[in-house]
């Protein structure tokens, strides 16, 4: 069975994923571009693969056309916005992913970004290295209200991690887990109420047609001017031009953004001192990366052995 791995790098954090490939007689070829594939490159590279172990690249119809034997996409990670399920249906391709592996890493990055922005840690580090000794007056997390848009795996983990800060949790979720909410004294409210009443807003929803520009100027105008916005979910959920306007004009005090509509990011948020930017690194821990790759290959092995997939998202059968 031939497998193409588009995600890069592969098996760099641990030899275990590659060892699983060898132990199970899988014929593997990998992305050799040294970076994320473009859709055009993927369409050329995939050729006669039966399985694609995918990263975050967009999988276009040209990819499906150039892979007539493709039967399974095993996604390394949790986001599925790069996969068109109508095309999967048209070409008879199943889809699996690894939703549990990156959860805690992304939640921990959220906490780190919140603390960094609240206490100006990065700004102070830069100042000291430029011989500027300046103590910023930050803000406590203790007793503050955090609004969480989307209480799935990552949203729940974020609540768990922040519970030790004695924060108040407000959540908007289309299918709220009421039992979990009771455990952490979560208040479930509307999106609009959350935006108007939260000191910090964390975005933890997937990108889809309903969440494109989910936070744009009308939403930013609802937020308090001392509020902080965190996006570690997906680029495109926050309208970047509107966020620039809001930060530039004091509609909100600051933001921390890990994900962008076009990556690598080259936009004008880079000009702003009140916007912390990181490079889509939510799942970038040795532990999480290894777990994602191992779980993606384990799905390939189950498919090869005609066993049920553990985390199947779509099956055309």
Automatic annotation (TrEMBL):
Any one biological process term the GO annotation gives: amino acid biosynthetic process
Domain D-isomer specific 2-hydroxyacid dehydrogenase catalytic: 14-313
Listed InterPro entries: D-2-hydroxyacid_DH, D-isomer_2_OHA_DH_cat_dom, D-isomer_DH_CS1, D-isomer_DH_NAD-bd, NAD(P)-bd_dom_sf
Family matches, as PANTHER family: D-ISOMER SPECIFIC 2-HYDROXYACID DEHYDROGENASE FAMILY PROTEIN (AFU_ORTHOLOGUE AFUA_6G10090)
Organism annotation: uncultured Sulfurovum sp
Keywords: Amino-acid biosynthesis, NAD, Oxidoreductase
Recorded family membership: Belongs to the D-isomer specific 2-hydroxyacid dehydrogenase family.
A Pfam family this chain is assigned to: 2-Hacid_dh
Domain D-isomer specific 2-hydroxyacid dehydrogenase NAD-binding: 111-282
Its EC number(s): 1.1.1.95
Domain of life of the native organism: Bacteria
Protein name per Swiss-Prot or TrEMBL: D-3-phosphoglycerate dehydrogenase (EC)
SUPFAM superfamilies to which the protein is assigned, alphabetical: Formate/glycerate dehydrogenase catalytic domain-like, NAD(P)-binding Rossmann-fold domains
Molecular-function GO terms, alphabetical: NAD binding; phosphoglycerate dehydrogenase activity
Source lineage: Bacteria, Pseudomonadati, Campylobacterota, Epsilonproteobacteria, Campylobacterales
């Amino acid at each position: 069975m031939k497998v193409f791995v588009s995600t890069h790098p592969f098996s760099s954090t641990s030899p275990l994923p590659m060892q699983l490939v060898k132990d199970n007689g899988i014929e593997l070829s990998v992305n050799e571009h040294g970076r994320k594939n473009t859709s055009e490159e993927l369409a050329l590279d995939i050729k006669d693969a039966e399985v694609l172990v995918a990263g975050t690249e967009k999988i276009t119809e040209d990819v499906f056309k150039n892979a007539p034997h493709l039967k399974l996409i095993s996604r390394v990670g949790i986001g599925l916005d790069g996969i068109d399920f109508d095309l999967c249906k048209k070409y008879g391709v199943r889809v699996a992913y690894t939703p549990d592996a990156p959860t805690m890493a992304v939640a921990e990055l959220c906490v780190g970004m919140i603390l960094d922005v609240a206490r100006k840690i990065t700004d102070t580090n830069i100042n000291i290295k430029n011989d500027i000794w300046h103590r910023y007056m930050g803000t406590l997390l203790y007793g503050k209200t955090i609004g969480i848009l989307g209480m799935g795996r990552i949203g729940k983990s974020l609540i768990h991690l922040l519970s030790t800060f004695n924060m108040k949790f407000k959540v908007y979720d289309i299918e709220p887990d009421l039992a979990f909410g009771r455990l952490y004294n979560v208040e479930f409210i509307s999106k609009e109420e959350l935006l108007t009443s939260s000191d910090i807003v964390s975005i933890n929803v997937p990108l889809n047609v309903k969440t494109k520009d989910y936070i744009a100027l009308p939403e930013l105008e609802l937020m308090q001017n001392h509020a902080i916005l965190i996006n570690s979910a997906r680029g495109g959920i926050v309208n970047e031009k509107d966020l620039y306007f809001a930060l530039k004009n004091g509609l909100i005090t600051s933001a921390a953004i890990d994900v962008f509509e076009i990556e690598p990011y080259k936009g004008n948020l880079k000009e702003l001192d009140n916007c912390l930017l990181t490079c889509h690194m939510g799942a970038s821990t040795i532990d999480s990366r290894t777990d994602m790759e191992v779980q993606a290959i384990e799905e390939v092995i189950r498919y090869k052995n005609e066993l049920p997939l553990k985390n199947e998202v779509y099956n055309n059968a």
